[in-house]
Amino acid sequence: MSRDIIKTLTYLSVHLTVGFTVAYVMTGSLALAGGIALVEPCINAIAFWFHERAWKRFDAASANAGTRAIHALHPA
Known about the structure:
The chain is mainly α.
């Protein structure tokens, strides 16, 4: 198994443990804490996808602005 997969799985286990613990301390319910600990990473993954799309648009806009600035300084 690759190191990246092992790191991902260990991080997932830490994330789930922390999420479960915080939810349990706040609610006192094992069922509710378990649900939160399982649902939250799924919602987070969707949010991350939108976050990445926004950054790709930002990067593309920045690259285009840089290209325009270079052409303004050094016209063909």
